[in-house]
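We give the chain.
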Amino acid sequence: MRQGLSKTVDKLLGIELLRFICSLSVLIWHYQHFFYVKNIAPLITSNQPFYALLSVFYTQGSHGVETFWCISGFIFFYKYKDALVKKNIDGQTFFILRFSRLYPLHILTCVLVGLLQVLYTHIFKSSFVYSPNDWSHFLCHVGMISRTARTFNGPIWSVLVEVLVYALFFMLLTYIKKPLWTTLCTPILVVFILCMGIHHPILSCICYFYIGGIIYLFQKFLATKNIAFIGRIVAWIVFLTSILFFSVYPSIWTHYFFYIYVPLLVFCISVPTQILSIVATPITTFGNLTYSIYLWHFPIQLSLMIGYSLLNLTMPRYHPLFFLMFIGLTLCIAFISYRYIEIPCQTKLRKKFLTPSTSSV
């Protein structure tokens, strides 16, 4: 059999596909940014392109962030749990692994947005969507301080919040003697606090991240009992029932509903898959574009706003072709960025600061 048709074993293709859908969800949700301009008619949500098909993304797309946090928890436990518990990865290695993946594109897009905001402010006499964009906030943003994350390249806020959870994850699994119990108790406590009426992005991130970790641990437990298939069938039944309830009672689509919906979704699709590599490769590629899509779509929107203004053209915000152009342009730039910026920078940093055995983690 030719290499391009060979089977790929134990690939979490469901997770990769869901990561990509999460990024598209946020991308479509942020399409409303094009209406954050003075002296234009207010946004009519139902008039946005392909609304009948994409209404759930236009109205609930921001919840792609929570789903991504849950996915991250699953992936981190999948990749790092045993290595951290066994002390095979130290703090410096863990930091370099995350820094090399996140920081190069973060600093690039942050500086780019800063320059574009200067030009936009000169034209429109105000910032585009996110502010303030002064030097103090820029330094905090560059330093990945989540308190000021909703400035400059604002969509990065969810990643900067997650960076704090990465540190918590490392410390708990490295320094607590019984990390499994710690892992189980942390999200339970956070959920209790949230249910008492306290809602904060960091708490939500901790909750979803550790729920993702619990999903991984629960799947391993089911596998040891040889009942993984039964557990997945039950999860699918409950998941589809929740969707049915939503269709009948749409008011349940609330913040608390997602604490049920998201974990069930991640559990159902996080199964290793055997599939032809000719199919698996594009799915994995799309999954890898998640971070690029998050960080590039806002500077692309900002550039389009400036470009249409300088050309003295009216932006066709409600036109389907403009929508498709924006989505297509974002995906193309995300692919170029991942292949020619992120991967080379990541490889160079890891080659310089890590040993060959850990640089590929």
Observations:
- The beta strands are 7-11, 273-276.
- The CA atoms of residues 221 and 228 lie 8 Å apart.
- The chain is about 70% helix and 0% strand.
- The first strand starts at residue 7 and ends at 11.
